[in-house]
Amino acid sequence: GTAALIWNEIIREKVTNFIMNQSKEQRILNFVLQNAVRGDPCSVVDTIDKYCSQKEWAMNVGNEKGLILDKTVEEANPSVALELGTYCGYSAVRISRLLKAGARLLTVEFNPEFAAIAKQMIEFAGVQDKVKLLEGPSEEIIPQLKKKYEVDTLDFVFLDHWKDRYTPDTILLQECNLLRKGSVLLADNVIFPGAPDFLNYVRKSPHFQCTNYPSHLEYMEVEDAMEKAVFLG
């Protein structure tokens, strides 16, 4: 798994970026703009999956774990959802297509280049009315959610950013009183690349009830899993 990631993410990607004079993320967006149906979020998701499974690997949640994400979102039926780690906007589009009328998703992205790609992806999918993209570090944005973005509590949180931020950001969500009894957290990549500190924290905490969903790393046969942690108050 690690060798495959090094090949895809470092060697192959840098060579292709140099030859084509554009980033992999821009290539993903261009493929969507040329091949997906504007205003159809399902078409956008399917088109990204097609590109990343057939052409270039990318760190979206992917089609297999995407079904776990879908099921968790549908069960939570959130009015206010938070995503940490937007990347190209794949999961933001995937989540928002399942949101009920009047619900909203706040998605946080630290990398300005990724944020710019995601903004175009979200608009092309036609879900911009449901999704608000917040650019900056999660540890700065989370404490601003109540006052600046009028969030009372979060019904659903998807953690898919830096793995070493999973635990501190979960603690921050608790300290900022952004979780209510029944709030659902879903964390990606808890096996590969892995988030052992997060698993240790939520599983040992009396405030969370955890469920593990074994799966595979996006677009690969490498073992991975998602962890659902329901806040008990």
Strand content: 15-25%
CATH superfamily: Vaccinia Virus protein VP39
N- and C-termini, Cα separation: 37 Å
Helix content: 40-55%
CATH topology (level 3) name: Rossmann fold
Please describe the biggest sheet, giving its number of strands, its sense, and whether it closes into a barrel. Answer: 7 strands, mixed
Radius of gyration: 17 Å
User: How are strands sequenced across the largest beta sheet?
Assistant: 3-2-1-4-5-7-6
CATH first level: Alpha Beta
Write the layout of secondary structure elements.
Layout: H1 2-20, H2 24-35, H3 41-54, H4 62-76, E1 80-84, H5 90-96, E2 104-109, H6 112-125, E3 131-135, H7 138-141, H8 145-148, E4 154-159, H9 166-175, E5 179-187, H10 190-194, H11 196-204, E6 208-216, E7 223-231
Parallel strand pairs: 1-2, 1-4, 2-3, 4-5
Antiparallel strand pairs: 5-7, 6-7
Helix pairs in contact: 2-3, 2-6, 3-5, 3-6, 4-5
GO biological process, one term: catecholamine catabolic process
Binding site for S-adenosyl-L-methionine: 61, 91, 109, 160
EC number: 2.1.1.6
Q: What does this entry look like structurally?
A:
- With 233 residues, the chain is an alpha/beta fold.
- It has one domain (61-231): Rossmann fold.
- Helix content is 48%, strand content 21%.
- It has 11 helices and 7 strands.
- It has helices spanning 2-20, 24-35, 41-54, 62-76, 90-96, 112-125, 138-141, 145-148, 166-175, 190-194, 196-204; strands at 80-84, 104-109, 131-135, 154-159, 179-187, 208-216, 223-231.
- It has a 7-stranded mixed beta sheet with strand order 3-2-1-4-5-7-6, sandwiched between helices.
- Strand 6 (208-216) and strand 7 form a beta hairpin.
- It is globular, with a radius of gyration of 17 Å.
- It starts with a helix and ends with a strand.
- The model has no long low-confidence stretch (mean pLDDT 93).
